[in-house]
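Wed. Picked up where I left off yesterday with Epoxide hydrolase N-terminal domain-containing protein. The coffee machine is broken again, so keeping this brief.
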Amino acid sequence: MAGPTPFSIAVPDEVLTDLAERLAGTRFVDDSPRRPPSRMSVPYLRDLVRSWRTWDWRARERWLNGHPQFTADLATPHSTCTRVPTGRTRRRCS
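Structure written out below (tokens, as returned):
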């Protein structure tokens, strides 16, 4: 089993363009009168889609890449691990 390998996030532009197009094309239907009480309403979904459309994905990518990140082969499956010193005892990714 290999040790942790440094990892950084690099989302291709095409992926973010596709996401933006899909979000822009979202069509909402009115809430059903039989909607279960899950709080998943059309106004909530509209707000969620609006926030995703205005989210600065590249800024979040830079922020995430500002922290040490690693992948480690755990036999199965492949996993992602982050380590951020907090002043407490550090845990090892393996």
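Quick read: The CA atoms of residues 21 and 53 lie 9 Å apart.
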